[in-house]
Amino acid sequence: MSTNRKIHNILSKLTSEIIAEGWKPKDVNAKLKSRLSEEFRDLKDEYTYMPNSSDEKESSHKEWLYDLTIRRYKNGRFVGVEIAAEFELSSTCEGGIRRDFFKLLQADAANKLFIYKHDERDSLKNLGSIMRDSANVYENDYPPEKLIIASWSTTDQCFTFY
Fold first, then answer.
1. Residue 25, C-beta contacts closer than 8 angstroms, at least 6 positions apart
2. What gap in Å lies between CA 116 and CA 57, rounded to an integer?
3. Domain housing 135
4. Which long-range contacts (CB under 8 A, 24 or more apart) does 5-11 make?
5. How do residues 18-35 score in pLDDT, each as one tens digit?
6. Are the CB atoms for 106 and 126 separated by under 8 Å?
7. How many folded domains does the chain comprise?
8. What is this structure's pTM?
């Protein structure tokens, strides 16, 4: 199964958790980072991934550039970044969300994941389409299908993928 498909499956699983456990909006960002990190930590032996998240307790493993980075190692040596992810679930500032998206867009990672939240009433509802358009015209050799853009609808309690 591709990494991209694994990410979709994990987000589907987390959607059920978010709804079942009634995650509060202010907690979703931290919980999502933590749960995604856990999910990939469970897979690390199979895929030699080593997740580093900005929420990790050990200071030597804190991520500073992206909210979650899954690094690939071979024989104990770093060989690449499998996933770079940014989560903007606590922010509703469109400018800040776009800046983080552009930061992620230029990442040297095999797969990229960007998640933000929107409400049916706010201007962020269509931001995913705008971001996808930006990614499609970004001048690089990165395949667009390796970028997952997902928005969490606080109204519908589900992810929409762009």
1. 89, 90, 117, 154
2. 24
3. 3-161
4. 6/43, 7/83, 7/111, 7/113, 7/148, 8/148, 8/161, 10/36, 10/39, 11/115, 11/150, 11/159
5. 777 777 766 777 777 777
6. no
7. 1
8. 0.80
